[in-house]
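Risk register update: the risk of archive-format incompatibility is retired. Evidence:
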Amino acid sequence: MLDMSLLDIQYVIIIVVILIILLAVLKANKKDANIDLNKLVEYLGGKDNIISTESKLSRFIVTLKDITKADKESIAKLGAKGIVEINNQLKIILGPESKQLKKYIDELK
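Archived output:
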């Protein structure tokens, strides 16, 4: 009977270790998926270049004073799934981060 309980304890320890490793991996992947908001504002030409922002589902729409200050290549490298430029406006497909970015920029102003 004593051998069986020792075996049970070993199984419990193994399961706990696996769960800890799994949670660490998931947390690391989630951190990598988040867009660096400070860099994104910088790539948009800085907070003073931003006139207005909108968030619609996965799209982040930003109106800029000077569209030439925006670094679209760097924005894409940060994780944007698509960027469309129309006049002085950029429509950036970010996914769920678009609402978070709008809130962040609104707090900067």
